[in-house]
Design brief:
Layout lengths: L6 H6 L15 H13 L5 H10 L1 H4 L12 H4 L1
Helix pairs in contact: 2-3
Length: about 80
Amino acid sequence: MLIQKTSLHTYFETIPDHKINRNKKHLLCDIIILSILGVLCGAESWNSIETFGKTKLDFLKTFLRLPNGIPSHDTIN
């Protein structure tokens, strides 16, 4: 599937991901964009960002890679 790149991707892809390699199951850019969209849609906690992501998964997959699905609230935090 072709992923549509947004201006958010252009900006946030430049941020280095300092997680340990074995812990890199989710792309940092995906986590940041998911968090921004979740908060804009009313999410007020890490749990509610995760819930937003799971609820809108099909939509989010049109522009986020999400290689391992929606990250957990602990990963988002």
